[in-house]
Specification:
The complex is a heterodimer. By secondary structure, chain A is an alpha+beta fold. Helix content of chain A is 21%, strand content 32%. Chain A has three domains: 140 residues, 2-Layer Sandwich (Gyrase A, domain 2); 74 residues, Alpha-Beta Plaits, CATH 3.30.70; 103 residues, Elongation Factor Tu (Ef-tu), domain 3, CATH 2.40.30.110. The chains are: A alpha+beta, B alpha+beta.
């Protein structure tokens, strides 16, 4: 398969990726670096020990305006938005009538308007969904804006050199700050399991901010490859792989995102099914798997019971650089989902022993204040 | 005359008597990125030219390594089990994969020599 790069979208940091010798690939229609010269293992480990800069401008930034965005958005997601304080943000998902997941997202209460951050793959459908239910005039998509993530234990120390106020921001909060003289909408969030920030910028100043951060001694660039291995070790789902429209919120183990009030009141697509699966238990569940040995077991591999019967499928799998071994996530029939259950995964037609574990594979280190 | 030959799939082979040492080229390891696991065949296994000889796993994906020529596996590089990154660090040396006793040593010269392989890489660029 050959991809014509001329058809791919470029982010405001495209020139910087080229300058840093990023190995560019097609990711959901965007031309982005899978890695830089250091390579995925080094970039992954650097993120866990210091701080890495990621270009995540492919994520869609959608601003919801009009009257009471919280109530309007609650009709589409199971998350509690009415009780989300100003400046705070929350992880939730768009659901369909069968409680399947159309996309997973972050929603930020900016006081006044609200920001919804969506994945690149489903963005067209997401926008149509939002416009159909909220009215097109309330939905403003900003495809031109940049989003950069600074992730790792040194992220706050580094960013505080530019904007001292960032250091005390609670996890999953946001603020408008000036970074190197540029106005930035900063969120304390990320997709690595580490402390860190996601920084939304106007396109014309994004490269200057990225360069300023990269000039700090703790910071190195990291690509999509490290982003994927970091999120997998942190037990975070990847849309289109671990989550999809045929997988419910309960099966995916995301009911922690559904508050007591929303469980009681419902009022979002598929709420009855979520309630029923919460009461009766789902037929299958998302689990973590630790395969024996060193060979990575990847997406699509079958999961077998000890007697050889198929009981599930791997949805994300690979080598965990911090774990220093293979790690995987997948779905298994509920009787096999208990921690410690011994199963098998089919690797090139050969069964490999694997143990069911509860993600994350690496303890998360989000800022606790 | 160099004793090294290459395939279009970026394997190399070095002949010593009738035994060829086989690995992947520097170009191949750079394309694959960080290698985290190598699956090697059992010694004694016979394979034809172009058959799957080994599997190399990078962080991102699994790729097959093919036998450049037909023969029988007489030795595999056991150090790759503990240190697969040798393939990245020294692909033409300590990162070798296996040794094949060739069923037809004369066929060795049918593979690309250094100059042909370098020309082939230029075409790919």
């Amino acid at each position: 398969m050959t991809v014509k790069t001329a058809d791919l979208l470029r982010t405001p940091l495209y020139d910087l990726h080229r300058k840093l010798n990023g190995k560019m690939v097609d990711f959901a229609g965007f031309e982005l670096p899978v890695q830089y010269e250091a390579g995925i293992l080094t970039e992954h480990r650097h993120t866990r020990s210091k701080a890495s800069l990621f270009d995540v401008s492919h994520l869609g930034q959608v601003v919801i305006g009009g009257d009471d965005p919280a109530r309007a958005l609650e009709r589409l997601v199971p998350g509690d938005l009415v009780n989300l304080g100003e400046g705070r943000m929350r992880y939730t998902m768009f659901t369909n009538d069968t409680a399947g997941i159309l996309d997973d997202l972050m929603i930020v209460n900016r006081g006044g308007d609200w920001l919804v951050i969506i994945n690149a793959g489903p963005r067209v459908a997401d926008l149509a969904h939002l416009r159909a239910h909220l009215g097109a005039d309330r939905v403003a998509y900003h495809p031109d804006r940049a989003l950069i993530a600074l992730q790792g234990p040194a992220a706050a120390t580094v960013l505080a050199r530019f904007a001292a106020d960032c250091a005390r921001m609670p996890y999953l909060s946001s603020a408008t700050l000036s970074i190197a003289g540029v106005e930035a909408f900063v969120m304390r969030s990320g997709y690595t399991g580490e402390d860190g920030f996601e920084i939304s910028l106007l396109p014309d100043r994004a490269e200057a901010v990225a360069e300023a951060l990269l000039a700090e001694p703790e910071v190195a660039p990291a690509g999509l490859g490290a982003r994927d291995s970091l999120r997998l070790e942190a037990g975070l789902c990847l849309y289109g792989h671990d989550l999809d429209p045929a997988t419910t919120v309960v099966e995916a183990g995301l009911t922690w995102t559904v508050s007591k009030r929303r469980r009681a009141e419902g009022g979002y697509p598929g709420a009855e099914i979520v309630a029923r699966q919460l009461a009766e238990g789902p037929l299958r569940r998302r689990v973590g798997l630790l395969p024996e040995g060193r060979a990575p077991v990847r997406e699509g591999a079958e999961i077998l019971a000890p007697d050889g019967r198929k009981i599930g499928t791997i949805t994300s799998g690979g080598f965990g650089p911090t774990v220093e071994g293979p790690v995987a996530m997948g779905y298994v029939e509920t009787p096999f989902a208990a921690e410690g259950t011994e199963v098998q995964a089919l690797l090139r037609g050969r069964p490999v022993a694997a143990r069911i574990v509860k993600p994350p594979f690496v303890a998360t280190r989000y800022y606790k204040g | 005359m160099s004793g090294l030959r290459y395939t279009k799939d970026h394997e190399w082979a070095r002949l010593d008597g009738e035994v060829a040492t086989v690995g992947i080229t520097d170009y191949a390891q750079a394309q694959l990125g960080d290698i985290v696991f190598v699956e090697l065949p059992e010694p004694g296994k016979a394979m034809g030219q172009g058959e799957e000889a080994a599997v190399v796993e990078s962080v991102k994906a699994a790729s097959e390594v093919y036998a450049p020529l037909g023969g029988e596996v007489v030795e595999v590089n056991a150090s790759l089990q503990d240190e697969p990154a040798l393939v990245n660090a020294d692909p033409m040396g300590r990162g070798w994969f296996l040794k094949l006793k060739l069923s037809d040593p004369a066929a060795f010269d049918s593979l690309m020599d250094e100059a042909s392989y370098q020309a082939y890489l230029k075409e790919l660029a």
